[in-house]
Amino acid sequence: MNPHDDPREQPAEHLRFAAYLRELAQVTDAEETAVVTKVLTDPDQTMARSAVLRHLDRRATTLYLGPAFEPWAQALTQAAEHHPFLSRRLQEWSLLRAVILGQPWRSGDLLESSDWLQHNAAATSDTKALQILADSGRTKRIRNAARTNLAQPGNN
To answer: Least buried of 13, 40, 44, 62, by fewest C-beta within 10 Å?
Structure first.
């Protein structure tokens, strides 16, 4: 038996991380904010934020194009208010949503965003976002992806 397969051989934070992921995957909407808040009280803040980030990305992927996203993002932003990285990720999901849905957004916000958001925005068909990223995206990879998508029929 591989020692990594035996839960007794795993570091405590690995076990808590796995338990948090399971709990967050099964949480109800009504309990979600409380569970996220609880996870973020873990003494291993790096591990706790990582578990919550995975949860936020998983949930946002299913919610960001629909009407349930905004109240969900507001509630989770409050739960993560003392965790700037998590708050920023939620803001960036909101910006990605605005870009994709054709809602108002600022060019500066896109240019100041993380590589994660710029990479995701470069995969959209929004001509304004693609042009900004093709010209001024943070990395060569982002600029090239935006240029490629901008050259697709219907994006000119």
So the answer is: 62
